[in-house]
Automatic annotation (TrEMBL):
Protein's name according to its UniProt entry: Uncharacterized protein
Native species: Cytobacillus depressus
Annotated spans, Disordered: 105-149
Origin superkingdom: Bacteria
Biased composition (Low complexity): 106-118
Biased composition (Basic and acidic residues): 119-149
Length: 258
């Protein structure tokens, strides 16, 4: 059984607040916070609480609280012992101490190791303002959906598309950037049309005759292959393509500008 030990405060390992802490503005504020921490459920709000340690118990009062700077909803209570010493404690831990069962069984059997505030685990419970904010449960990570594999026709087919932008692509053969056109909304016009999305093709002399601009609608024949757009080297911002472009149009012909 825990015995009264107000004269044995030298047994307590104090964790005083670091610097200033929040105090109560009035009795109403005190009652609100104490009930928020679950320390009092009666009509008359409790003014004294028990602090239990090493088979001893002490009467303490709540003087204020610390606020965790990154999360104002997380508090550390500041309690005062009868000799004026201050100590920080987690609200839930002080609440546990009010139970008559606290200190029995594993508490009294392991008084030398588990309940001592010098123990690292208990320090965390009593002074969470010095520790990290508890992480909220992580939602199960959603697997990225793999892009649908397109069945590309091998023969020359008819396409519709619009010009998205102009870009530059590195050519390993001549070791310089080539001009290319990025097409969007590319559709292979078959009996069952195939939506491709983005594609690219060389800005050839034939295409340059059309003096294309972003937004222009095109119809043309050509062959499509799976070939990722090689990034240009040292290109200006307006030539950078934000999304990956995985398909290339070869030898566009019978071009019509809408």
């Amino acid at each position: 059984m825990l015995s009264a030990a107000s004269s044995q405060l030298n047994e307590v390992t104090f964790l005083p607040p670091k610097g200033s802490y929040e105090t109560f503005t009035d009795e109403g504020h005190y009652a609100e916070k104490v009930r928020e921490w679950g320390l009092s459920t009666t009509k008359e709000v409790k003014k004294q609480f028990l602090y239990k340690e090493k088979n001893l118990q002490y009467t303490v009062t709540v003087k204020g609280y610390e606020v965790y700077e990154k999360n104002p909803e997380i508090n550390t209570i500041v309690i005062e012992f009868q000799d004026g010493n201050l100590c920080c404690i987690h609200p839930a831990y002080l609440k546990e101490m009010q139970a008559s069962s606290f200190g029995k069984g594993s508490f009294s059997d392991a008084a030398e190791s588990s309940p001592s505030p010098s123990n690292e685990k208990e320090k965390t419970e009593m002074h969470p303002a010095e520790d990290k904010v508890p992480e909220s449960p992580k939602e199960p990570s959603k697997k990225k959906e793999k892009p649908v594999k397109l069945e590309l026709p091998e023969e020359k087919v008819h396409f519709t598309a619009s010009v998205k932008q102009f870009s530059l692509s590195w050519n390993n053969f001549n070791e310089e950037n080539d001009e290319v056109i990025i097409l969007e909304n590319l559709v292979i016009q078959l009996e069952n049309p195939i939506e491709v999305g983005l594609s690219w093709c060389s800005h050839s002399k034939t295409l340059k005759k059309f003096e294309l601009s972003p937004g222009d609608i095109l119809e043309f024949d050509g062959k499509i292959v799976k070939k990722k757009l090689p990034k240009g080297k040292d290109v200006e911002e307006q030539f950078i393509v934000a999304d990956p472009v995985l398909y290339k149009i070869n030898n566009p012909s019978k071009i019509k500008k809408g």
